[in-house]
Design a protein that fits this description.
Elements lengths: L1 E10 L2 E7 L1 H6 L5 E5 L7 E9 L4 E7 L3 H7 L6 E2 L1 E6 L10 E7 L3 H13 L3 E8 L8 H7 L2 E6 L6 E2 L2 H11 L4 E5 L2 H13 L4 E4 L15 E4 L2 E4 H4 L2 E3 L5 H23 L1
Parallel strand pairs: 8-9, 8-12, 9-10, 10-11, 12-13
Antiparallel strand pairs: 1-2, 1-6, 2-5, 3-4, 3-7, 4-5, 13-16, 14-15
Helix pairs in contact: 5-6
The structure holds FE2/S2 (inorganic) cluster.
């Protein structure tokens, strides 16, 4: 059982949870995820770790209420317990001193991007961050991103905060401004696909995190099977980060579509 020590609401359906998990806090690396379960028969829910406090023995998770399991989690409050939290899992991000990096986070993707930004900064990179979201209330963790970035561009679809436009405009701005050695992109698949295309256009390698396709996170359900560079890979075992140029994006969109339908059905039953 893991106690929730802090809950913060970012927007209507997005919450931050700080959870007691001392061993995970100590050993987690940027890019790692945990599997959370609510109730003995609860579904396994993989969530990327957004931060950790070793002294307090806590980890931070940012959760969007999209299906039944995430709804159950979002209904919990400070002082409540999560049935179990297993991790850290997944391969950590390859952190080295690349030179100048652009870290692009779309919507909730800023949460898993944050530890990557912090680790890249600590490794000596010049870190330029692009935070993008549909509107102002969907721009999350801005202070934390600013703390570890040399420069930040904020883009919103409706222009309610920062500059009006999509994430790729922000990436292009940094590319025009100076030489970029590597791009990291995390967010909705469509955002990562186009971030990758933008990077490719300028011959810059782009790393993407496909964590949103995972279902059980254990290598057993097969939902995260994808063609990467023509080879079949499991995102939860072989990833979650891959070279964006090798990802079969059409297959990714198809798989995510199937998953969404099943989730909606389940949620309806719960609400009935
Ligand atoms: Fe189920 Fe990878 S998430 S096999």
């Amino acid at each position: 059982m893991n106690k929730i020590v802090r809950k913060e609401q970012f927007s209507e359906k997005v919450f931050l949870f700080e959870i007691e998990a001392p061993l995970i806090a100590k050993s987690r690396k940027a890019g790692n995820f945990v599997i959370v379960r609510i109730g003995e028969n609860g579904e396994r829910m993989p969530l990327t770790i957004a931060g950790a406090d070793i002294a307090k023995g806590t980890i931070t998770l940012v959760v969007q209420q999209v299906g039944l399991s995430s709804k159950k989690l979002c209904m919990l409050n400070e002082g409540d317990y999560i049935t179990d939290v297993v991790g850290p899992l997944g391969n950590p991000t390859r952190i080295e001193n690349y030179g100048t990096v652009v870290c692009a986070g779309g919507g909730l993707g800023v949460a898993p991007m944050l530890p990557i930004i912090q680790a890249l900064k600590a490794a000596g990179n010049r870190v330029l961050s692009v935070m993008a979201g549909r509107s102002k209330d969907l721009i999350i963790l801005e202070d934390k991103v600013r703390e570890s970035s040399d420069e930040v561009i904020i883009m919103t679809d409706d222009g309610s905060y920062g500059e009006k436009g999509v994430v790729t405009i922000g990436i292009e701005k940094f590319v025009e401004q100076e030489h970029i050695d590597k791009v990291f992109a995390i967010g909705p698949p469509i955002m990562m696909k186009f971030s990758n295309l933008t990077a490719q256009k300028h011959n810059i390698p782009c790393e993407v995190s496909l964590n949103t396709i995972m279902v059980d996170g254990t290598g057993m359900c097969g939902a995260c099977r994808l063609s990467i560079g023509g080879k079949t890979k499991f995102v939860c075992i072989d990833g979650p980060e891959f070279d964006g140029a090798l990802v079969d994006w059409d297959e990714m969109f198809k798989r995510m579509g199937t998953f969404k339908e099943a989730e909606q059905e389940e949620l309806q039953h719960f609400e009935e």
